[in-house]
Amino acid sequence: MQKIQLKQLSSFDLQAAGQSPWLDTISRQLLNSGVLKEFVQKKGLLGVTSNPSIFQKAISSGEGYEKDIRTLFRSGKSVLEVYDALTISDIQRACDLMLPVYKKSNREHGYISLEVLPVLAYRGEETLAEARRLFKLVKRPNLMIKVPATAEGLPVIEQLIGDGINVNITLMFSIQDYCQVAEAYLRGLERRLKQKKSLAAVHSVASVFVSRIDAVIDQKLEALLKDTVDEEKLVLIQSLRGKAAVANSKLIYQEFKTILNSARWQKLAKAGAAPQKVLWASTSPKNPAYSPLCYVEPLVGKETVNTLPEPTWKAVLEGAKVVPDAVEEGVTEARAVIDRLRSFGIDINAVCVDLKKAGVKLFEQAFEDLMRTLELKRIEHSPKKNPAKVAFKLPEEIQEAVKSAADLAVGDRLHSRWLEKDSSLWSTEEAHIKVIRNRLGWVEISDKILSRVYEIDLLRAKLVSRGIKDVVLLGMGGSSLAAEVFSIVLPRASTPALRFHLLDTTDPQAIAAVESKINLKKSFFIVASKSGGTIETVSQFQYFYGRVSKAYR
User: Fold this and answer.
1) Whole-prediction pTM value?
2) Which tens digits make up the pLDDT trace of 332-378?
3) Domain chopping of the chain, boundaries
4) Which of 3, 67, 146, 356 is catalytic?
5) 328 contacts: CB under 8 Å, gap ≥ 6
6) What's the Cα-to-Cα distance from 463 to each of 215, 454, 504, rounded to whole Å?
7) Domain spanning 10-368 has what CATH number?
8) CATH number of the domain at 467-551, please?
C-alpha cells in the first residue's frame, strides 16, 4: 500500500526559506482556548506581536478579562494599573509558551512584543523609562519592547540595545526610517562591545509597515485617473496600483543586505551579534480586491519576519506559494515603480512621513478608547454609595412661573438642543454660530475626559516617583473653582501620597500659610489661567518661581 505524503504547511516552508512567521494579535481567548499553543507547537508559529489597537480590541470585547477587571478595580487599582495587570499577564503567558522555541533556537526565535504607551511617542526620556519598567515587570528573556521609530525614539533604541533589552522598532515606513533605525541598533551594539558585554544576549527587529503605503498611494492614483484622458498615461497609472508597498519593502531589504555585507557589521557579527531582522508588519491587504497573501509571498527572504494578522496567518496555513528569496526578485522593477510614482508627482517619502504621524495618532486613539472603556468599568465596579437626597419647596409666588418655564423648556427641547450644541438657542446669525459652537465644548467634556483620566494617573505616578510631596494650584476664579470643588467633595486617602493646596488669592497671609506647609524643593506648581494674562495668577507665578529658584541656589 502506497504511503500518502502529507503536504507540509506553508508556515514551515517560510521557516525553511529563512523567514519567521509571527502572529500579529494576542488575546486572553487565544491563550485560554489553547489555540495559540497549537499554533506554536503544531503550526510553526515563531513569535507574537501586540500593539495598543490589538489590546483595545481584545480587552474591550471582555472575553476572559471581566473577572480580573472587576477584582482589580474593587481592590482600588487605577485604570493604568489595571491595564498593566491585564496586558502583562497576557504577555507573560505568551512568553512562557514561546520559551521552548526561544531556547531551542538559541534566542533567534520565540519573541513576544509589548509596546510602550503610545502617548510617549515623542517623549524620549519617558519612553526609555517606560521600556525599562516594562522589561523589568514582565521578567522574561524573550520579551521585545516595541518603540516607535520617531526622531525622539532613535536615541532610546540605541540606549536599550546598550542596556541589553530586546527591541522591536515599530511604525517604520520609508528607507530613511530603516537606515536610521539600523544605525541606532549598530550604535547600541558597539556600545555593548566597548563595555565588553555580550552581544549575543540582545536581539532586535525593524518593523516596516507595508499595506498602509498602498492604501494611501492607491488613493492618489485613483485621483490621477479621474483627471487623466491620455490613454497611454491611464494604462501606466493603472499598472502602478498595489505596487508601491512591495517595491518600497524590496528596496529596504537591499539596504539591509548592504549593512550585512559591511565591515562594520562583520566586526559585530564576529563578536556574536545577531542581525536586526527586517519585520514586515501590516501585511493584510486594505483593498479586498487584492490577494490575502499579496504582502507575504513577494517578501519571503532570509533573516526576515512577517507578523501576520490572524486572517492572513490562516491564509498562509491554507497554502501560500513560498519562493525562497522572493524579496530579492524584481529589484530593478521596484526602483522603476518608485521613479514612475515620482514622475506623476507622488513622493513615497512624503507619504511615509505622513503615515508615521497618522500611525502614532491611530495607536493613541486606540489606547484612549481602551482607557475610556476601562474608566467606565472602574465606575461600574467601584463601591456604590447612597446618593445624597435633597428636598426643597419653591415659594408659592414663583411656583407657577417656574412650572411655565419648565414646560416651555420641554416643549422647545432646550436641554437636548443644548447638548447638541444648537447655536439657534442664542442666535441664528452666521457670524455668531461658529463662536457659539466653539464655546460649547465643555458640554461633552465629562464624556471625553474618560479617555484621558489615565494621563492624570501617569502624572501622579511620575510626581511621586520623583519625590514630590505637595501640589500647589495657582489660579483665580474659573481656573481654580472646579479644582476647589473636587478637592472638597471627592474622597481622599487617609495618608495621601500627594497633598493638594489651592491658592486663588494674592493675600500675603494666605500665600505665607501655604508656603509654610510645603518644601519648595519637593513641590509641584500648576499655573492655571485660561487667558494667560490674569494679573493675580501671573503675580503668584512670579513669586513662587522666585522662591523656588532661590531654594536651589
Assistant:
1) 0.86
2) 999 999 999 999 999 999 999 999 999 999 999 999 999 999 999 99
3) 10-368, 389-455, 467-551
4) 146
5) 250, 253, 301
6) 42, 14, 23
7) 3.20.20.70
8) 3.40.50.10490
